[in-house]
């Protein structure tokens, strides 16, 4: 069982948000990842709570002690695909979990989108322990010629600082 789960709200495999997911997967042992864009689109768009795929990923979230929510920021809000998945979580699906929101946006102009758009939804889902959000800008995640990414050291330091705050939450054995 993974004690930490990443919910990746990117729209495509080419998103800079995926660089953050890959970094966290390399940094933390036994982390599970849910890439929302890989879930069946029809299940997301029709809010199919009975979908085997949706129920399977919801069980992963249910068993986790901490959740990292990754999202790109578009037009001052988190991604629509992330919202479609969050709507399929049970009413208190994030209760008793520590949440770390991380977003990647084009500029600092959308920094507060995490406070005013994402955090209220996480709270409605039962989250009471929401760590300091990490907001990164596109230029901190360079797309390399081979298709991989390079994350700026300053961004890595900020991610690591919040990941270290997750460590005590999941360090005690079940």
TrEMBL record:
InterPro entries: Flavoprotein-like_sf, FMN_Rdtase-like_dom, NAD(P)H-dep_FMN_reductase, NADPH-dep_FMN_reduc_SsuE. It holds the Pfam family FMN_red. Keywords: Flavoprotein, FMN, Oxidoreductase. One of its GO terms (molecular function) is FMN reductase [NAD(P)H] activity. Gene3D superfamilies: 3.40.50.360. SUPFAM superfamilies: Flavoproteins. Residues 3-140 form the NADPH-dependent FMN reductase-like domain. The keyword Nucleotide-binding does not apply. This is FMN reductase (NADPH). It comes from Paenibacillus montaniterrae.
